[in-house]
Automatic annotation (TrEMBL):
InterPro entries linked to this entry: Secre_tail
UniProt-recorded name of the protein: T9SS type A sorting domain-containing protein
Domain Secretion system C-terminal sorting: from-to ranges: 956-1019
Keywords of this entry: Signal
Gene3D superfamilies found in the cross-reference section: Galactose-binding domain-like
Key word Transferase present: no
Record NCBIfam families: Por_Secre_tail
Amino acid sequence: MRRTLVYFALSIVTSLVGAQNSEPGFIKVGDGGTTSVAMSPNGKYAVGQGVGIGDAPMYKSYLWDAENGQLTWMTELDENDFDKSGHFADVNDEKTIVGNFKDENYILSYIDMDEQFSGPICVAAVWKDGKRTSLGIGDFTMDDFNSFADGSFAMAVSADSKTVVGYINQGNSTTFTPCGWVYNESTQAWDYQRYALPEGSQGGQIGSVSADGKLAVGYAAYHLRAMPVIWTSPTECLQIELTEEDASYEDEFGFNYGYKISPNGQYVLFTLNNMIPCIYSMKDRKYVKLDGYPDATGLSVNTISDQGDVVGAFGYGNYFSGTYTRPFWFSYKDNKCTDFEYLIQTYAQGVNIPFSFNFSDKITSNPQSISADGTIIFGTNGEESWILRTSSDRITLPDYVPNVRAVNSKLKEVTVSWDKAINIPTGFILKSYKVYCDDEYLGNVDASQAADASRIQYVQQGVSTGLHTYSVVGEYVATNGKVYESPKSIGVEIGVVNSFALPLFDNFDSPDFTENGWTNELLLGNPRHDLKWQNRTSGDPANETASLTAIVMTDEPYSATLTSRFMDATELDRVYVSFSKKLMYANRDDWDLTLDSLSLEFSTDDVNWVAVRDYPADKVVAGSWNYEQIDITKLAAHKQFKLRWRTHGKAVAELLWYIDTFKVGSITEKPAPEGLTGTISNGKVNLQWQNTFNAYELSYLENSTALYEVSFGDSEGIPLIIANAFDPDQLKMYDGKYITSVTTFLYEYLSDEVKQTRASILIYEDDKVISEQEISDQIINGYTFTVKLNHAVKIDANKKLKIAMKIFDYNPQSTPVYYQCSDLFVPGKSDLYSEDDGKTWKKLSDFYATVPGQEEWGYCNWPLRANVSDEEVITDSPSLDETLAGYCVYRNGVQINEGLIYGPYLKFTDEDPVDNGCYEVIAYYQNGDVSEVSAQYCVGVISGIQENDAVTIIKVYPNPADDYIYVEGVFDKLQLLTSEGRIILETTEGTIQVSGQPSGLYFLRVVSGSKVETHKVMIR
């Protein structure tokens, strides 16, 4: 006879959880090293496994008996004796156990990598009265299996021990066939029968059977999806029909499993996408969904009582950060999903429990099985299993305290507020509201004192900085004098900060939003659809770090917010907000974009919000970063306020919103871009401005960051010249100015054995070299650098010009020349190169035109930028501001560039200009800084301007102005008007004193003959 190992629990076990005892109590099952699997409907028996057990049946399993408090190990792992194996799946009130074992009557042999493998497959079995009975493999043969994990699996047994259900597993869990076994009294053997499947399905499993054996529950598998199924007999099945609201779960990757049927056959437990538990009523033919909890990443649920109550656990965390659970209890009668701790608090008052079930402790707890009457629960915490008996005296559960909020409106102070409780159960009197911070009791508010208030508050002072979670509980007194509490409200997280001062800057590189006091909330929508804001890699070429991201991939209306801390502008006369923004489509680009939006919103009380700016998805150009600055002075000046980002809509489209370099400030930190000017060509306005060291850039580079390596077969290692060529027409606006430096780019693979590349800057005039200067201190390996010329070159717009770089004395294995690949390259101008020291010039586009499949590789713009200055001599070494992100262009105050104009690209073409348009440029920086607005560049009537004629420039600066406004250009007179149109000053001079004028918006009218231009100006 096989020996068994028996553990004896404490002597109090029998009196505590015996079948005849109904008093609440709690015991540990065994001495640890166990997991829970199933419990009989009356709670009399339980089965489980040893620690570390998956679905492999060769490990040890145990039976626990409530009558004597004994845990008996009935199977064990012994690869030399598979007869000892067994994996328990279910037990009934008759102490009948079902599961599977390694049956040596079914041996599988195969050869892999010239090695012979042989062993038993899994076979369903019944354990009863000390005897194990193999159920065989039905109408399958050993030729149908190819893995040791294949075989038959018994998953559940009826109350009379005569019906067993399960499935056949083939192909190492790739194909399943639902089946069952019925005990034949006449033959005293088990008869196998396949179960029917819905039309079109490709297999399925059965995991549960009703006490009378008449109903079974499982799922049917389809291509890349699964649906819950109820079998009313082996030949008839009912697939649960999802509501219209949940219809999308039937699409691909919708894995909806049927798990359990209540012993009385009245309720079915299934899940949507294995994340949302649902209870289906056999009587009503309808189901309810459990509310669940936010941010859950998994679900473990496999039991339901005769009343429709469910216990289980939501999973949190991941492999890298660690995993933990949130055990829960669902009351079908009250339609409430609460923390498991609340079940203990309400129906096991005073019971000493050695384990924590508190979610904030990040425990690993899994209530696995519930008795038919819903009073006994079998589960596991960590590696220790337990039994909890609760009171059968059930009450009507009070509602959650509604609409709990927490606001950090004063330093070191948090105001917690909530709506007055209205739906008070009959026989209950509301006594008080209890307030908790981080699960620690803070205090209470007497309900009688707040009886006349619709909104109730509690103020906590002396709050430490950092993340805190607040919740509120309603405390009630029943007519029998007992005190009950409502379920604890879902915790409200808030980041408490040590300053409300401006500026506020966040590039969202930290995964902890609370560092800057942000609050992340899902106001509407399914919490399991990952709708809350998060940190992700932004893909911003100007700032390749993390960014704030909202992912909209759901099928329900939604609203998700990220709310700032309070910001104090009570002493400020001006407030602005700046940020970068990008929209991306998920999965495809033909979505209906009319019903989804992003909004930036403003509030002074964290309750009432107004829109600062709305971004309907169909009005935003996708795929490009764009920067914005919004003046919110009228809303925010002299106030304390909050801002929030909100994604909202009907979820018709699948979108990703990105936000980065977010800043709220009161002053612009950088000087305005200088030298904004332009020309008219083909009815378009071509704008250009100076870089951060006040030079125009003469180049062909387009608004992109893509650089591609180029190398030339036999020419590697020999001198190579790359060049940009410019005709006189292209040089008109630079005539008489000076090339004072050249900005370029080199890259090479350096090692101790590889010499550093030598390079020179060359300038050709009418194909003659007029300047050559070796680069003495070039910066290489992927960085842009600027070479100051020893002698500036004056531009003669009557002559052709080449800006070139010569590469020589470099290692043959190096390819130091890179270029921008662009459809906007100019053949013969932006792609020239020479391999004979400038005697002949070739086009890179011609070279690649002969290489099949690589033609586009020749679309070349060399990274050569000639810096053109007004003065011949520059005193400082030119250096670009590396923190610059880029520029935005505005026409008559409205931004017209669809994507950010990145730092190196100081030009923009208005493809659809308007008459009398005035242009401005603002620079944006990676640290959130924003420049002043550039001086305006204005055009007249577009149709009246000759092609390529420079437009008369009217420059108005500074704007905003403090003391004086300066106007440069040709004009007859200037008029300063109030915002109402009243003329308050008129002059013919270019300097206007405004220090005595009140702050606000004004208009400057510039009169030149019959032409009149009007400029908006701000006076501070």
